[in-house]
Design brief:
Jelly Rolls; 62 strands; Carbohydrate binding protein with CBM9 domain; mainly beta; about 40% strand; 6 domains; eight-stranded mixed sheet; TIM Barrel; GH; signal
Length: about 1050
């Protein structure tokens, strides 16, 4: 490829000389880049997937301690499609060990479809003696063309790459990075970056005027220093990591940098606020700016930080006559939990997964670390042993070196011998902190053996390792690989292949964000114990997901509001974390492992934004270091949960509410202490009056007696956003939907003005999740006037102006206005509130919308023959492999393997449901309350869709050979058979000319649902199909599913509206206009 290509740059570029007109980039360390998920260092701007041309002029960097360009390091242009998992970095790439080469090839570091690291080298080379390098990338919608030059006039094409489709770049920019930890690149200078195209990114001359908005992807490893008038950055103080023990001052360090205002005086003000926005402390000073960054250190006095919690620290810096620059951080104050070097606690149920800061983990009360490794030597090279001993932390695996192919008895034996030998080596060398080890992680997601074998050889490998360990006389406890959620199919395979004693500890993963923590845990534990007896069961990976301030796609927008909508606000994240631990301990889990690696999973967004979850976890571990569940004081169907525990012989009672606020009076013969969810004392004495909401309270002492309890309108000290549905400031919104016919849907938007000032403007709805441009609302917007505290409800009708892109809730298309992922589904909208002077506020809906109606049909009979359903609209599978969960996602061979469809209708007796499941292997081995473990359907149905009762809605299980089952007790009746629900299940075995299929048909009486079908209101629904191929449930799919495999949170249900009897099915099908 020697074609000459004209550059847009003039030779001299007309830029001012000197460092003030350069972007200066430095890389402190590289990192393993084998997989797409590995973080890559870049400074980026958002893009919209459209064609572009990028150009950059770079100046040769000075050699650093690692040389000019260490082995397998690179720099240049950066292009990424984060949605589809493709990334390309083009520029000089050094494949050799010589870190100061005379020439290096120009290459593209490529990842496609979330695949592995690849380098596509060109024949063009960069002469490292050249002072300048011009790089160019062109994308025409099909092909990427990469070119380079050293003179800025013309360049040679180096590479052409046709990215795997779909490819819609959403980030572009500049990168420097390396594959190895010790890679470092010093002061690479960029003179100019140019972009042409219709997307949002902007060119930048790097002259201090900040023409473009840049975001750094890896600020810990790489710095991209732009020319600036004044820039403020927090730095870690020498005395802490922004998590402080209660009773200590909170130290901070602020760095000020300028390239334009050297010698000028800046005024500084520091202010500290509590979680409710009350100012607790402030300080002011003046400093003179210098050419070198100026670092200022200070501290918030301990007496101003009297309570555990999160605090905001704001720095304001102003140059004379100019607006102040503001930088904020959020730090945490936690209960004091001593770190115990060289002393280990095997009774503690608190473990941490992939914590970067092991000392912080120990200060939170965590007593074990789950850290991946492949070779035992990593315990020294990565300082695992040193860090474990320094902080008194046990290390529980996992070993990732478990893949073997081809699958023969010989390769299995060799791999088992290798793993067992590694475990024995660890046990011998580190007997103090190695007590158990895990083999591999989530085998359903990354199969270590051929998928066609359904992980049976892998189960045999685990059994062989166990055999080897016992033959060697080892006392090491073997943990099963942590499964994605609770994958019963692998666990049953493991128990049948190796026997119930094949492992000493059973491990599963417990994710269920954003759903509530209650319910489902006991069912999982019962199934596991039926396989493995009374062995300890660990949740060895778990987290709730929190909203992040910054997104990989760029700033929050209408089309990318909150990723997949499975994230929670930080306060709810913290409280759900605590309730999840309590529910899991109550169910019988012996240990819970908090995942802390991915930004939205973690207890910190970053080191200068510590989340409240750090505090609630530390408070829980400090209050219940060794929890033992004693009893329930209230039933699971009660809105108020009161649970008794002991910890090291001391009684503790916990209280929280699932619905409503409650006034509770407790008495005891000895004084009680009451702590809130953050570990702060809120009451004490022999008689305490408590206001209980969703945030747990901890009562220390006892035995306690409940003197009285009542529902109250009084608010507790901690109120979750879900407990004040229209309490968000300055404006709050709720969005619900309903169908008025089979061709018309309506969206109802309720707005409240919580700003404290009158509002006059317009409300304009927008579709989220990349809806077609032709979709529209009628009316397009509505004028509103709201006094402070006033509420208004507006209605909009969705439709489309293009027949080729209809708005049709009965045929949704994933990715076109309809979100269809494993754990989230439906339409969502944003409302733009704008004023006449141009101010705008965006509000995003959190509840999913289905917008479907179900027809009336009094001709259907429950007989297993679905011919009388022909006119009823179907619910097709939407989303492909992004809707199938756990092993069903990867271990699926096509529609004949498993494909469910279903329909709803109604008559005056009840709700009609029919489903047809194509399924090559039908397993109906489990019955009654255990039927969910094998092939079955589960329905969640909630009469009050807008304000659900979290213990009052039915979850039904439909299975072959069983009556319809009420899966979980409600306040009205216990779990068990529902004789009033007619159910017919017929299995049709497959043959050469037809696939196997199972037909389900039932009628659910309205009296069971407590719903009036002629009210015109929708009810909430969730449909989950459980799939088993004979080894118990391998996964599930359906509509409005919930993470974790159990129906537990009716707020995540979709809406279904029974249509009036005069709306017959034959009215279909003309999509909404």
């Amino acid at each position: 490829m020697n074609r000459l290509i004209h550059l847009l740059f003039p030779v001299a570029l007309g830029l001012a000389s000197g460092a003030a007109a350069d972007l200066v980039a430095s890389l402190d360390a590289g990192g393993n880049k084998w997989g797409y998920a590995a973080p890559h260092a870049a400074t980026v701007q958002p893009w919209d997937g459209s064609p572009f041309t990028l150009e950059a002029e770079l100046l040769r960097s000075a050699p650093g301690p690692s040389g000019l360009l260490p082995r397998e390091s690179w720099f240049g242009l950066f292009i990424e499609d984060g949605s589809n998992g493709s990334r390309f970095s083009f520029g000089p790439f050094n494949p050799e060990r010589d870190a100061n080469p005379a020439r290096v090839p120009l290459a593209a570091v490529c990842y496609e479809k979330r695949g592995h690291f690849q380098v596509k080298r060109s024949s063009e080379q960069w002469d490292t003696a050249a002072e300048r390098l011009f790089l160019k990338a062109e994308y025409d919608g099909e092909t990427l063309r990469f070119s380079a030059s050293t003179d800025g006039q013309a360049c040679r094409e180096a590479l052409r790459i046709v990215p795997a489709k779909p490819f819609m770049p959403n980030r572009i920019g500049l990168t420097l990075d390396g594959f190895h930890d010790r890679s470092a690149i010093r002061e690479l200078r960029v003179k100019e970056f140019r972009v042409s195209g219709s997307g949002p990114a902007r060119s930048d001359r790097f002259d201090g005027s900040r023409q473009a908005g840049w975001n750094s992807t890896e600020p810990k490893r790489a710095r991209f220093l732009h020319p600036v008038e004044l820039e403020l950055e927090w730095r870690n103080p020498p005395s802490g990591n922004n998590v402080f023990d209660r009773g200590r001052e909170a130290a901070f360090t602020l760095e000020l940098r300028t390239t334009q205002c050297i010698g000028e005086t800046v005024g500084l003000r520091f202010r500290c606020f509590d979680r409710d926005g009350r100012e607790l402390w402030n300080s002011s000073e003046r400093r003179t700016l210098t050419a070198e960054p100026l670092r200022l250190s200070g501290s918030v006095p301990a007496e101003r930080l009297a309570r555990n919690g999160v605090y905001r620290l704001r720095a304001e810096a102003a140059l004379p006559g100019k607006p102040a620059q503001i930088r904020e951080q959020q730090f945490a104050v936690i209960p004091v939990i001593p770190v115990t070097p060289d002393r280990y606690d095997r009774r503690s149920p608190y473990s941490g997964n992939y914590f970067a800061d092991w000392n912080l983990a120990a200060r939170l009360g965590i007593r074990q670390i789950r850290q991946t490794w492949r070779q035992p030597g990593e315990f020294e090279t990565r300082q695992y042993a040193e860090r474990a001993r320094a902080n008194g932390l046990l290390v529980n695996g996992p070993c990732l070196d478990a893949a073997f192919r081809p699958q023969t008895p010989q390769t299995l034996a060799a791999k088992a011998d290798r793993i067992a030998a590694a475990f024995l080596k660890l046990e011998k060398k580190y007997p103090d902190f190695i007590y158990c080890q895990e083999i591999y992680n989530e085998p359903e997601n990354w199969p270590p053996t051929a998928m066609e074998t359904d992980l049976v050889p892998f189960a045999a490998l685990v059994a062989r390792v166990r055999q080897n360990l016992r033959a060697a006389g080892s006392k090491l406890r073997l943990m099963s690989p942590g499964t994605t959620h609770v994958n019963l199919s692998f666990l049953k395979t493991l128990a049948l292949v190796g026997g119930p004693d094949v492992v000493d500890i059973v491990a599963v993963h417990g994710y269920r964000s954003p759903n509530r923590p209650e319910f489902g845990h006991e069912e999982d534990i019962a199934a596991i114990r039926d396989l493995f007896g009374d062995k300890p069961v660990y949740v060895n990976e778990d987290a709730y997901f929190a909203l992040t301030a910054e997104k990989p796609e760029g700033p929050t927008s209408i089309t990318q509001p909150f990723h997949t909508m499975i994230e929670l606000d930080e306060l709810t994240h913290a409280i759900y974390l605590q309730r999840k631990y309590l529910c899991q301990f109550m169910a019988g889990y012996a240990l819970v492992n908090q995942f802390d690696s991915i930004r939205n999973h973690s207890l910190s967004e970053h080191e200068f934004h510590r989340r409240p979850g750090l505090v609630t976890l530390a408070a829980l571990a400090a209050t219940l270091p060794h929890p033992e569940f004693v009893r329930r004081r209230t039933a699971s169907t009660d809105h108020l949960w009161i649970l008794d525990w002991t910890t090291d012989g001391r009684p503790v009672t916990t209280l929280w509410s699932l619905n409503d606020f409650h006034e509770v009076t407790l008495t005891a013969p000895e004084p009680l202490r009451v702590l809130d969810a953050f570990g702060n004392e809120t009451a004490n004495g022999r008689k305490v009056a408590l206001t209980v909401g969703g945030a747990p309270l901890f009562v220390l002492g006892g035995p306690v007696a409940v003197e009285k309890r009542a529902v109250t309108a009084r608010h507790p000290a901690i109120v979750l956003p879900e407990e004040e549905p229209l309490g968000e400031k300055p404006f709050a919104m709720e969005v619900f939907g309903r169908a008025e016919s089979l061709t018309k849907s309506v969206i109802s938007v309720t707005l409240r003005n919580n700003s404290g000032a009158p509002f006059a403007g317009t409300a304009t709805p927008h579709f989220m999740n990349d809806a077609p441009a032709s979709w529209r609302f009628t009316p397009a917007s509505q004028p509103i006037k709201l006094a402070p505290g006033e509420t208004v409800t507006l209605e909009f009708t969705p439709g489309s102006g293009d027949p080729a892109e209809p708005f049709d809730p009965y045929r949704p298309v994933a990715g076109k206005g309809y979100n269809a992922l494993w754990w989230t589904e439906g339409y969502r909208v944003a409302i733009e509130l704008s004023t006449s002077v141009g101010n705008a506020t965006l509000l995003h809906s959190r509840r999913p919308l289905c917008l479907r109606g179900i027809p009336f049909d009094d001709r259907i009979s429950i007989d297993g023959d679905l011919a009388d359903w022909n006119d009823i609209p179907e619910f097709p599978q939407v989303g492909g492999d992004r809707k199938r969960n756990t092993a069903l996602a990867r271990f699926w061979t096509g529609a004949a393997d498993y494909r469910p469809t279903f329909k709803f209708a109604w008559n005056r007796e009840g709700l009609l449901f029919a489903a047809e499941v194509l399924d090559d292997k039908h397993d109906a081995d489990c019955k009654g309350l255990d039927a969910w473990r094998t092939d079955s359907i589960q329905l969640g149905l909630n009469a009050d869709h807008e304000r659900p009762d979290f213990t009052g809605y039915p979850v039904l299980t439909l299975a072959d050979g069983s009556p319809a089952i009420l899966q979980r007790a409600t306040k009205e009746r216990p779990a068990g058979p529902l004789p009033e629900v007619p159910l017919k299940v017929i299995r049709h075995q497959g043959s050469y000319d037809r696939p196997g299929r199972t037909v389900y048909e039932c009628l659910i009486p309205w009296r069971l649902l407590k719903f009036d079908p002629e009210s015109g209101k929708p009810f909430g629904f969730c449909v989950q199909f459980n799939e088993s191929d004979g080894w118990w449930r391998k996964g599930w799919e359906g509509y409005f599913l919930q993470m974790g495999g159990h129906i537990i949170d009716p707020r995540r249900f979709g809406d279904l509206t029974p249509l009036k009897p005069d709306h017959r099915p034959m009215e279909r099908h003309n999509p909404c206009k």
